[in-house]
Specification:
The protein has a single domain, classed as Roll (Nuclear Transport Factor 2, Chain: A), CATH 3.10.450.50. It has a six-stranded mixed β-sheet, with helices on one face. It is an alpha+beta fold and 123 residues long.
Length: 123
């Protein structure tokens, strides 16, 4: 059953995503995504679809993350899109955009190093 966008808090989902990353909880991280979600990583020139490819992408990063990884620097809400500036697994500054479905699942993320590329919020 779908719910309206007003019944979930996109910022809370982002906090859960950051918490899962900090704690190295791969299953918790993956559970936040819709089954058909896409991930575009401009840092690594990668586009992924679905849980299996996300698991292969995230598992080594979570295993080898630095203690300061997944630290929130800034968050901006644009309707159902959330722009997050945070520290990646190597403590490098990244910007990631989260797009959600009406039930609050992440349907698309796009990340890139902060300071490179156009500064629009809808990637």
């Amino acid at each position: 059953m779908s719910t309206s966008p007003d019944t979930f808090d996109p910022l809370a989902v982002v906090v859960d995503w950051l918490d899962a990353g900090r704690s190295g909880d791969l299953d918790g991280l993956l559970d936040l995504y819709d089954e058909g979600a896409t991930l575009q990583c401009l840092c690594e020139n990668a586009t992924l679809v679905g849980r299996k490819s996300f698991a292969a992408y995230w598992a080594p990063k979570l295993k080898n993350k630095l203690g300061s990884a997944f630290t929130l620097d800034e968050v901006v809400l644009f309707g159902n899109i959330v722009q997050v500036d945070y520290r990646n697994y190597e403590d490098r500054p990244l910007r990631i955009y989260f797009h959600f479905d009406n039930s609050g699942k992440i349907i698309h993320t796009s990340c890139r190093a902060r300071g490179c590329g156009p500064a629009d919020a809808y990637n």
